[in-house]
Amino acid sequence: MLENASRHVWLYGMAEHGYAEDDAVPELLASAAARGCDIRVLLLDPDHSGTLMVDREEGNPSGTIAPRIRASLARFQAMAEACGGKMKVHVYDGPPTVSIVRGDDRILITPYVRYIAGANTPTFELESAEKNGMFVRYARHFTKVWDGSRPWKE
Questions:
Q1: Which option is the CATH number for 8-151: 1.20.1630, 3.40.1130, 3.30.730, 3.30.870?
Q2: Pfam families under this entry (predicted)?
Q3: Model's pTM, two decimal places?
């Protein structure tokens, strides 16, 4: 899905740790940047109080998720630098609601289900087919959160 994207590559969630740690992702994003893709990574601000809520609800010791988010942000920031300005990394303040992975006209949606770790929640694939369908609604959600976010600066 992301390998063939020519317009949009979006990663949105708490930490998107799987993508941050995947050794194939830096090259995938560099290739997407070379194709002119709009690459956006949007993660939960590790300093936001929502991280403590996530730790509590997932049964983690307090302070577990924030370092994972910071590690992901550091990896994505390094990838952004390698993409020559074609990739933006932002953070948002607010409760986590969903993970969105977009490659052009396809989106993977993983809802944040309280008290359950993300790896144990369902993922749904949506395609852009209707003018006001679910794909469009999730794309709008991403855009609204992005518009209220800020660039990550460590």
A1: 3.30.870
A2: DUF5919 (PF19319)
A3: 0.93
Cα 5 to Cα 31: distance, rounded to the nearest angstrom? 10
Per-residue tens of pLDDT for the chain, all 154 residues: 899 999 999 999 999 999 999 999 999 999 999 999 999 999 999 999 889 888 888 888 999 999 999 999 999 999 999 999 899 999 999 888 999 999 999 999 999 988 787 778 999 999 987 777 999 999 999 999 999 999 998 7
Helices 50-57 & 65-82 angle (0-180, nearest 10)? 120
Domain locations along the chain: 8-151
